[in-house]
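To illustrate the input format used throughout this study, we show a single complete record. The first block contains the structure-token representation of the backbone; no residue identities are included at this stage. The design step must infer an amino acid for every position from geometry alone.
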């Protein structure tokens, strides 16, 4: 089986593979400190259940990463994945100026990549993303192993920031 024929396993980053709790305080102030929030991402510890699931999925699937992080965070995100021994895989990010909700932007990417490849699973912590993906027919694994803040949930849904 070539990598072009293997199914895809798609993983979110924040609070799925990486523990973003230490930086959520940047979102609990007004105005929210997005530079601080994303600037602290390289210090995220890995979340062992998410990492283990990603490594297990990589035995049968090509791994893709799908994050609401803006494009300007690409280098930090790729470095973090490599540092923590996660499989290589294409990283899908939002444009720096895209403020649509994550449930919209992520579903758009899933549909695009799902036109030519089987998406075996999406692993994400955002309930609205998971609900939208499941409704669209994708198999969803809800990453419920990290505790997200209300501020992060609002940022994901209302501000289109992560």
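Output of the design step:
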């Amino acid at each position: 089986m070539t990598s072009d024929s293997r199914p895809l396993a798609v993983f979110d980053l924040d609070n799925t593979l990486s523990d973003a709790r230490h930086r959520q305080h940047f979102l609990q102030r007004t105005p929210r400190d997005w530079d601080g929030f994303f600037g602290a991402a390289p210090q995220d510890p890995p979340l062992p259940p998410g990492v283990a699931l990603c490594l297990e999925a990589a035995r049968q699937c090509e791994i893709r990463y799908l994050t609401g992080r803006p494009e300007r965070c690409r280098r930090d995100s790729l470095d973090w994945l490599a540092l923590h021994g996660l499989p290589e895989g294409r990283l899908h990010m939002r444009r720096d100026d895209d403020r649509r909700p994550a449930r919209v932007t992520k579903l758009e990417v899933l549909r695009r990549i799902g036109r030519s490849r089987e998406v075996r699973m999406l692993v994400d912590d955002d309930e609205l993303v998971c609900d939208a993906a499941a409704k669209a027919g994708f198999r969803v694994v809800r990453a419920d192993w990290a505790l997200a803040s209300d501020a992060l949930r609002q940022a994901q849904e209302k501000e289109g920031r992560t």
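Structural context for interpreting the output: The mean pLDDT is 91. The first strand starts at residue 8 and ends at 11.
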